[in-house]
Structure formats: C-alpha cells, structure tokens
Amino acid sequence: MRILLTGRSGQVGYELERSLQGLGEVVALDRAGMDLSNLDQVRETILGLRPALIVNPAAYTAVDRAESEPELAMRINGEAPAVMAEAARRIGAAMIHYSTDYVFDGSKPGPYSEDDATAPINVYGRTKLAGEQAIEASGIPYLIFRTSWVYGARGHNFLLTMQRLARERDELRIVADQTGAPTWCRTIADTTAHVVTALQCAPAQAGLNEPRWREKTGLYHLAAQGQTTWHGFAQTIVAHGSSIRKPRVLPITTQDYPLPARRPANSVLSCDKLIREFCGLPAWDDALKLCLE
Ligand SMILES: NC(=O)C1=CN([C@@H]2O[C@H](COP(=O)(O)OP(=O)(O)OC[C@H]3O[C@@H](n4cnc5c(N)ncnc54)[C@H](OP(=O)(O)O)[C@@H]3O)[C@@H](O)[C@H]2O)C=CC1
Ligand SMILES: Cc1cn([C@H]2C[C@H](O)[C@@H](COP(=O)(O)OP(=O)(O)O[C@H]3O[C@@H](C)C(=O)[C@@H](O)[C@H]3O)O2)c(=O)[nH]c1=O
Ligand SMILES: [Mg+2]
User: Which of 112, 130, 173, 256 could share a disulfide with 78, CB 3.0–4.6 Å?
Assistant: First the structure.
C-alpha cells in the first residue's frame, strides 16, 4: 500500500520516514513537495498520488508566533487536515494525524482522557483542535494521536534548547508549575508503526485493511508514561550532561516567565486507551536516557 507522509523534515516526520519503511511504499514530502498553506496543492497532490494511507505530522508548531499569525496557523493546522480528509474520502484512504495536549485548558487535577472536554487557551491549541474536529467529521477511517512535549536529537525542542543554554549560562530559570510528559519523537514514530502493523497484518493486506481501521477509528492519547514539570525535565537533561560545569536549575513560576501564548498548567495525558488497544509506552525518563545516549 502507498503511504503519503508529510513533514518529513520535522521531529516526528523524520522518525516516521524510517519507522514506516516496510509497511508500504512511503512517499515522504517536505514543504517544497506539498505546502500545507496551499490548500489546492494539498488536494491535488493527494488526488494525484492516491495513497491508501495519509500520515500527517506536519504542523505549524511555533506556539508563541501563532498568537500573531492566527490565520496562517489555522490554515496549516485546521484547514489543511480538513482538505486532506476530504481528499482521503474521495479516494478511500485512511488518515493518521497528530495533535496536542494544548487542546486542554490544564485545569483538571489528574490526567486527561480522550473523552475529557477540550478548551484550548492559545491560538495553536485552537487550530490543532479544529484539525481534529475536521478529520472526525469527515467520516473517513482515521487515528488521531494526541501527544505532548515532543523532543529529539534534531529540530527545535526543549531538550536542545536546554543543552545550548547549559553551555552558555551558569543558571537556568525554568517554570516548575506546568506539568506534563516529555515524549521522544522516536517513541511516537515507533508506536505509530506498531499500530499500523496491528491494523494491517490481521491478515496481511496489500491495500488498506479498511474494516480493521474502521473498528479502531478514533482519538488516542500517545505520550511517554509518568509526569514531570519543565523544571524537572530541565534538571534531568542537565544531570545527564557530560560537561564538568553544570548550571544551577532554578524553579520559577509561569508568571516569572512571560510569553505571548498561555500554556496549560496540567497537560498530563492518560494513555490507557492506546495501551489497552495496541501496545505499551515507555516511561519519560527511560526514553530520555536512551535519546541522550
Ligand atoms: N513539538 C511538540 O512539542 C509537539 C508536537 N505535537 C504535534 O505533533 C506533530 C509533529 O510535531 P513535530 O514533529 O514536533 O513538529 P516540528 O515543528 O518538528 O515539524 C513540523 C513539520 O511541519 C512542517 N511544516 C510546517 N509548515 C508547513 C507547511 N506550510 N507546509 C508543509 N510543511 C510544513 C515543517 O516543515 P519545515 O521543516 O519546512 O518547517 C516540519 O517538517 C504536529 O502535529 C504537532 O502539532 C504535539 C504535541 C507536542
Ligand atoms: C527556554 C525556557 C523555557 N521556559 C518555559 C517556557 C514554557 O512554559 C516551557 C516550555 O517552553 P517551549 O517553548 O519549549 O515549549 P512549548 O513551545 O510551549 O512546547 C509545546 O509545543 C507545542 C508544539 C506542543 O504541542 C506542546 O505539547 C508543547 O511541547 O518552558 C522556561 O521556564 N525557561 C527557559 O529558559
Ligand atoms: Mg516552542
């Protein structure tokens, strides 16, 4: 089966291009191959390639910049997934899409499950929620994986930012009142491949195993297990660093670190549904150790 992968230069897309090998003929595109802000190009590319499965990790992920570019963020995160789902419906394709813990307002005291009410508190979260809702409304077979705090060895992420700041500064000041689960982009890609295998290989199919996809269609939380704060995440990164001079990592409050976009205080995702239906997930600090090694 042909798999169309978007965002091949992003954190998750880069890993997916590798993890999906062998599950089908992977056609991996970057922004130059398909620009998600050009909705006609998105539609025509999909109708031309006729994939059995569209995997879409491409997104507008600059949380603070989105506050001043809400229309562009909505086109890429809300409207492009809607166009993808509509094109998928016309050619009988399924879709795997990624979303975020930032669809929640963060006021819940415990982990969020898939049926908890969404209430985004920033532009990025609102645009990602619009993408989810468009796919859900389209009637195609789909999987939406909501994940959180994605990091990896390349790209733009909190891990690489902390490693850079640790080399430059004697002291890091990091918010300690936002709780979540840092998730390695490789965990997301490998889990996606496990799920595709589980859906396709019972029995093995040349095309999309549509009845199985329809049976499992829906929203799944997919994040590393356990929880920490950005401060706890930073402390662990610095503690594993090889440098002799380690900066102090001071806990601060959200108020001490003003940014254009608000962030949820709690964005821990309960992944029980995915674990029950498909496979286990690693603890956040075990995955981080492997990534750092
Ligand atoms: N990063 C995180 O912390 C989290 C991410 N997510 C979600 O997970 C998914 C994967 O995120 P992640 O891999 O971290 O994101 P990255 O920011 O690492 O990558 C985003 C990708 O999208 C591409 N892209 C952006 N705009 C366009 C466009 N107009 N046309 C085509 N491609 C475009 C980028 O291309 P280019 O390299 O050219 O810019 C890049 O390849 C996204 O849906 C995101 O919302 C969910 C929770 C946390
Ligand atoms: C650099 C830095 C950040 N911070 C804080 C700001 C913020 O509250 C927190 C994380 O900052 P970032 O800008 O890396 O995080 P942010 O861009 O909010 O990360 C989010 O990205 C999107 C795409 C998602 O979907 C989310 O799951 C989440 O990963 O750390 C400090 O306290 N001190 C610092 O020196
Ligand atoms: Mg950021």
Answer: 130
